Amino acid sequence: MRKHISVKIISILSAFVMAIFMFAGCADKGNGEGGSTSSNPFTTTTRGDVEGGTHIYNVGTTNEDFITNGKTEYVVVLPDDADYYEQTAFNEFSTFISEATGAVFESVRDSELTDEQIAGDGKYISIGDTAIFRAANIALDKSEFGDGGFIIKTVGKKIILTGATQYSTGTLYAVYELLHQLVNFEVYTADVITYDTVSTIKLPAFDIKDIPDFPWRVVNTGMTCTDTTTASRMRMNYNRSPGSTTFQMTLGGATHHTMQHLIPAADYRESNPEWFAKNAPESGEIQHCYTCRGDELQFKLFVGTTVEKLKAETIAQPNAKFANLGQADMPYWCNCDECTEVRETYGANSAAVILWMNEVSEQYYAWLNEEYPERDVTLSIFAYHDTTEAPAVKDANGEYQAVNGLHLENGVTVMYAPIEANRIDSMYYDDTNLPDNNSRYTEILKGWQVVADSISLWIYGTNYATDAWITPYNAFNAIQDNYKFAKENNVYWFQYQRRNSNSDKNGVGFMNLAAYLDSKFGWNVNADYNTLVNNYFNAVYGPAAQTMLGYFNALRAQFAVIENNGYFSRMGETNYVEAEYWPEPLLKQYIAMCDKALAEIEPLRESGDAMYDIYKEQIVLESIGPRFMLIEFYGLNYHQSELLEMKTEFKSDIIDVGITQTAEIATATVGELYKKWGV
């Protein structure tokens, strides 16, 4: 059951934290030229504000009563045919405003209002595309607002709020902002939602226009991928939950690496072997041959079959707005003569996919525009593994030019996923004089910008080392700067891949904090990092906030030491889950800090406060990493009976906090860990 609390935000800064700050601030990362860059664990942003966002907030006061002593005369108006987001917006508003103020808001439909009521100055809250909204003559440009932007406007005594598109998440987001303005509503995790409790509110004078910095914002955590309610409340797009509300189209049941599911080898390889990579294995992840071995008829059949399958999925998913026709998640590419020739002609494997996709998108959009002119669906391909490089080269002036004029047509976006990039530092970390810099990956992006009109970016805030998902990880050096980098490069879709299973609500290593920051920076890249972090710790840890913030910063200080000793995070990186990086006394210190935090919330348990269990879960979650490493690295230092007790308690706690995987691979389950430990 979700709990809702009212939190008074306070500033957190302790002598302990300051001590860590002073220690860590001395650490430098050499650049090979006698210079240095700061590795201060408290510094996450090196760039100033990024221009171009639209977040206009003009909020004044009026003398009109909105809620008085827990009562209201206001009525919510919905369209007669209210869609999922409009109806959900009302449900969410009525639930939370009632809990915060005691006021009960009734709803009516458009058809229940007279022309005089629509045009008059009655006390109404208009949600979505209502007659009241249309009568107000408020112009919203769909191309500007996209799916997530919204307005909130006070017109006389009415409050009008809506997004700009049909079936718009913007309308739902507008309600969450209205709640924030009225009662300081804020969502930190699935279980921690805060608001003020008040009984009287005057009608505010709203003139708000807010458009997210990225039209689509996705974060790979269970809390934001598959928990659709929490994702929406955090103003995130979710793409792993099947059903009519998911914005991303599933193709053959998959969302990203879709081609092997849309055109599966099991169904087509025997009859159309030309559609599949010449060097593909007999089973497993099968790549396609996008030249169809040079056979023009087979190429047309491959394109046509893909389009027909895509049409069927479009019809079956009437509210989907995005479809990625992505290759298999394996680092190999077809080595047939025809694919090799395309690569040599254009300088990149991706050229074959572009030529194929141009044919697919041409046929698909011709059909879509004729049959469903009101639908707006964006298609996408991957720039990933063997298709990372763009078919572009620098000219004599150092400017990128598309090879032979090749261009990704029809507004198709390219999903650039630089999996080999350094993930500890941001994409701005591109000075070639610095070690482990990301210059190669920023250059690749520049190449894609001349080949495609739309760029999407998939960034990794994770690693794939053994047991990585139940140990700490420094996801925080790069987080805000990567969002700023994406904004400056006009990214359409921004996706941050985090570390926990998409089915797990929680993630070790303060991944819930990372998801909260993602939700804020994905909306506004210039949001204040320190304010967000302080607010989060106060809300999520309550009386233990100061201790847990100290623990968080202590971990980051240790990562600064590890990173300055040469560790960085990318695909195939050195495993940082090693005893040399985590001395036994340090792990015990972390565990002691978590124990102190548990002691600080103990009075809540004794008084029967419902927040005790929520605070406890989040504290225990962050104890998992050091406890695991203490057992793994230093278990022999403990008596057998004591070690068994440590393992047994660990198992009980990791079950309670809902962690199921120790790493990304399917076989890396906590069940396998229990077997290994004999518990």
Describe the structure.
The chain is α/β, with parallel strands linked by helices and 679 residues long. The protein folds into 3 domains: 184 residues, no CATH class; 158 residues, Chitobiase/beta-hexosaminidase domain 2-like (Chitobiase, domain 2, 2-Layer Sandwich), CATH 3.30.379; 324 residues, TIM Barrel. Helix content is 40%, strand content 16%. It is built from 22 helices and 20 strands. The strands form 5 sheets. The chain has a 7-stranded mixed beta sheet with strand order 4-12-8-9-7-5-6, covered by helices on one side. Strands 13-20-19-18-15-14 form a 6-stranded parallel beta sheet. The chain has a 3-stranded mixed beta sheet with strand order 1-11-10, with no helix packed on it. Helix 15 packs parallel to helix 16 and helix 19 runs antiparallel to helix 20. The longest helix has 24 residues.
Task: Describe what is shown at a glance.
Helix content is 40%, strand content 16%. The protein has 22 helices and 20 strands.
Major beta sheet, strand line-up = 4-12-8-9-7-5-6
Q: What Rg, in angstroms, do the CA atoms define? A: 27 Å
Number of domains: 3
Helix percent reads 25-40%
The CATH class of the largest domain is Alpha Beta
Percent of residues in beta strands:
15-25%
Count of alpha/pi helices: 22
Which structural class is indicated by helix and strand composition? alpha/beta
Named CATH architecture of the largest domain: Alpha-Beta Barrel
Shape: globular
